[in-house]
Write a structure and sequence with these properties.
Protein name: dihydrolipoyl dehydrogenase
Number of domains: 3
CATH class of the largest domain: Alpha Beta
CATH architecture of the largest domain: 3-Layer(bba) Sandwich
Main location: plastid
Function: Lipoamide dehydrogenase is a component of the plastidial pyruvate dehydrogenase complex (PDC).
Number of helices: 14
Shape: globular
Radius of gyration: 24 Å
Family: Belongs to the class-I pyridine nucleotide-disulfide oxidoreductase family.
Number of strands: 23
Oligomer: single chain
CATH superfamily of the largest domain: FAD/NAD(P)-binding domain
CATH topology of the largest domain: FAD/NAD(P)-binding domain
Largest sheet: 8 strands, mixed
Low-confidence stretches: 1-74
Cofactor: FAD
Distance between the termini: 18 Å
Amino acid sequence: MHSICFQATGVPRSNYIFDSCSPALAISKPINLRFCGLRKEAFGFSGLTHSSSGRVRFSSRGHSKKVSASAESNGSPPKSFDYDLIIIGAGVGGHGAALHAVEKGLKTAIIEGDVVGGTCVNRGCVPSKALLAVSGKMRELQSEHHMKALGLQVSAAGYDRQGVADHANNLASKIRSNLTNSMKALGVDILTGVGTIVGPQKVKYGKVGFPDNIVTAKNIIIATGSVPFVPKGIEVDGKTVITSDHALKLESVPDWIAIVGSGYIGLEFSDVYTALGSEVTFIEALDQLMPGFDPEIGKLAQRVLINPRKIDYHTGVFATKITPAKDGKPVIIELIDAKTKEPKDTLEVYAALIATGRAPFTNGLGLENVNVVTQRGFVPVDERMRVIDTNGNLVPHLYCIGDANGKMMLAHAASAQGISVVEQVTGRDHVLNHLSIPAACFTHPEISMVGLTEPQAREKAQKEGFEVGVAKTSFKANTKALAENEGEGLAKLIYRPDNGEILGVHIFGLHAADLIHEASNAIALGTRIQDIKFAVHAHPTLSEVLDELFKSAKVKAAALSHGPVSEPVAV
C-alpha cells in the first residue's frame, strides 16, 4: 500500500494478513501500504503505537519497559563481536539503516536471502512506477479533448506490451544494481543467505545445501518485510489468477480483469490496465471503494478515476473462491455478501488480480530462540522499534523495522524506522512520529496524504476537547495546473483553529505525491499554520496550491501568540 512498495524478500515467512489498505488508517489500525523511500544513493549518488484495542495511545519519551533477561537463557551473549550492526533483509528499510550506520561509523553487515532491494525495488514500487509512467503517457495521448485544448494533433496511440514490460524490468535492475553498489562502496558487507537468529546477538545465515555461517553483532535489526497475501479459496496460477508480483511482469493485458481489493495496489493497477485497454471489475469487501482515504477525497477520486473509465465494481462482497482459467473456461469468481455470508453472484472474467494486502515475512527467523512470539505474524515492538518478548519485556539489542512489525507498511517508513534505530544504538534517543510520514497513490491524477483524515481528527477532537477546522483549495484556481490543462483536483487541510496545529493534509490532483512533503515536513517539525503562511512559493507553480491552502485556514487570534502545539504521537 502500496503506491506499491514493500520490503519483502525470499519465500513467505507468514500466512497472516495485515488487513488495512490505507495510510490514513494508521491511527485506528496498522496499514499495508506500499511506497518507496529510496535514498539518493540508490540512483548512483554517493545520504502511534496501537493498544490491544487497536486505538492510538500516546507514548511517553521515557524508556518505560524493562530490558528482558529471558534472552540470556538461550545462550550467553558473545564477548566480542564480528559487527556493530547486522541487518536481516536488504530491502529499502535495511538499505536505509545500513547507509546511516556506516555514516555513524558502525561496522555493518546486511544479510539477504533473495535479491538486494526487496519487494519495493524488484516487485513493488519501482517497477510499478515504470508501468504507471506508461499509463500516464497513454492517457494523455488518448485524450482527444486534452490534446485539442493544447493545440496538439496526435495520431492513434499504441504500445508494445513487451517493450513496456522491459521498461519496468530494466528500471528495477538499474536501481537494484545501484543499491548494491552503494552499499559495497561504503563498506557494508553483503552476506548472502537466509538469516536466522540463534541466540542473543547471534545470527546464522546460509544457502540451502551449504553449511551455515555464524556471525555476531552488538545490535541486530530485523527488516524482512512482507509478501502478497492470498485469502483462502483463491487459487493463484500466476497466469490468469495473479498477485502484484506477477502483474508487474506484464506478461499479458487481458481484455477483462477483476481486481480483488480497491486499496492502493488495486487502484494503481486499474490505472495501468484501463490505460492499456482492459476493462476492470473491482471486488471490495467494504461498502465503498477506497475505504482508507479521507471520505471527501475518496468521493472525488471515484468520480475521476473510476466512473468515467471502463470500470465497474461490486462492494460489500467477499470473493470466497476463485478458479483459474483452464480447458477453455474463463476465471470463475464466487461472491458472497460480506455481512450475511449468503451467495451473491458469480463472475466469469479473463483474469483476476489479488490485491488484498500484505503478510509479514517472519516465519523461520528463529524468534523462539530469544523468547519472542509474533502477533498475526508481526514482530511486536515498542515505539523505538525494540522487540518485545512473550513476557512483555524488551529483548536486548534486537530491533525490527518495516512491514515485519506492522506499524506502517510503507517502504520509506521502514527506512525512517531503520535510521531511528541507528540513532538509538549510537547514543541518541529518537522516537519517530509516524503521523508525519506521507503516503501516495500514483494514479492519474495522484492522491497523497499525511496525518489524520477528517473523521479521525473529529474523533480525536471529541475525546480531547478541541475544535477542528477544515480548509480547501482547488487546482482549478492554480495557474500552473490550468497551463497543463489539469485543473481537476482538491487539497484539504485539517487543523486546530485554537493553536494552528496541522492535523492532516490530503491532496488529489496533478503531482499530489510531490506536493505532500511540504505538509509532512511541517507536521514533523511542529510548524504551525500561522508560521507557514509566511513561506514564499515560486509563481506560477503547483506548490501554490499548498500556499493558498495554508493561507485560507482561520487560526484564532490567541494562537498567534505561539501557544503550545500538542505533543506529537510517537508510534
